[in-house]
From TrEMBL:
UniProt record similarity statement: Belongs to the ABC transporter superfamily.
Signal peptide: none
Lineage: Bacteria, Pseudomonadati, Pseudomonadota, Alphaproteobacteria, Rhodospirillales
The species this protein was found in: Azospirillum oleiclasticum
Domain ABC transporter as annotated: residue spans: 2-235
Tagged with keyword Cell cycle: no
SMART domains: AAA
Alphabetical list of PANTHER family matching this protein: HIGH-AFFINITY BRANCHED-CHAIN AMINO ACID TRANSPORT ATP-BINDING PROTEIN LIVF
Molecular function via GO: ATP binding
UniProt key word Transport: yes
Protein name: ABC transporter ATP-binding protein
Transmembrane stretches, start-end: none
Keyword annotations of the record: Amino-acid transport, ATP-binding, Nucleotide-binding, Transport
Pfam assignment, any one: ABC_tran
Length: 235
């Protein structure tokens, strides 16, 4: 369970998050929708510890994670897949995945091996290409690699920022398929996605964001809530 209450954050003098409150539970996709520049990425980065909150609380299964160092938050079970994917040049797919093992500190060598094998089974495209340089993968495969690297740490909560930006429709289907599978396996996924129609199909609860605030929240299964969302963000 992720509970965010009255979260504020600044970039210098700019008050970017102005009191964001949202919640999500295991086994659901929670989506953040809104125009460019309203603060969606900042919400995700603040939860992950990449941006320090000025006030408010962030609780993960009851533990206060607000303002803690990012690597600590990671080890507490929260993973982030940033928009820029961060595939490391000069490293193979497998070596990129091994970088995800830093989240598994304290586990034995065989447990780490198992964590890698489990993720490769889940991402057959990556398994086939494990010896290939990560930067030579297609955009969609790089997105999968970024997701898979985080999954090596077996997080309970996954924050995913714009996973399908610039990708071909076929690979977009695959990425939504992976998101659905992870959700059904019990992960909480907090998703930022411009393709509202695609995202809404996998979402349970959504939050519409404007100027660093939640302007309304609704259930994706509710037709009135969906109508209101489409009216608000003019898709
Ligand atoms: P969104 O994800 O909704 O497009 P962002 O969270 O990326 O919005 O950005 C919210 C606002 O904060 C924007 O006005 C953006 O220009 C500004 N911003 C984002 N990152 C930084 C930064 N590192 N320093 C200063 N301003 C930033």
């Amino acid at each position: 369970m992720l509970e965010i209450t009255d979260l504020h954050a600044h970039y210098g003098l700019s008050h970017v998050l102005q009191g964001v409150t949202l919640t999500g539970a295991a086994g659901e996709v929670v989506s953040l929708f809104g125009r460019n520049g309203v603060g969606k990425t900042t919400i995700i980065k603040t939860i992950a510890g990449w941006v320090r909150p000025t006030s408010g609380s962030i609780r993960l299964d009851g533990a206060d994670i607000g303002g803690r160092p990012a690597d600590r938050i990671c080890r507490m079970g929260l993973g982030i897949v940033p928009e820029d994917r961060r595939i490391f040049p000069g490293l193979s797919v497998l070596e990129n995945l091994e970088l995800g093992l830093h989240q598994t500190a304290g586990r034995s060598r065989s447990e780490k091996r198992e964590a890698l094998d489990r993720v490769l089974e889940r991402f057959p495209r990556l398994k086939e290409r494990r010896a290939q340089m990560g930067t030579t993968l297609s955009g969609g495969e790089q997105q999968m690699l970024a997701m898979a690297r985080v999954m090596v740490g077996a997080p309970r909560v996954l924050l995913i920022d714009e996973p399908t930006e610039g990708l071909a429709p076929m690979i977009v289907d695959e990425i939504f398929g992976i998101i659905t599978t992870l959700r059904d396996q019990g992960l909480l996924i907090l998703l930022v996605e411009q393709n509202v129609h695609r995202a809404i199909a996998v979402t349970s609860r959504f939050y519409a964001i404007e100027r660093g605030q939640v302007v309304f929240t609704g259930s994706a299964a509710n037709a009135d809530d969906r109508e209101r969302l489409f009216g608000t963000i003019a898709v």
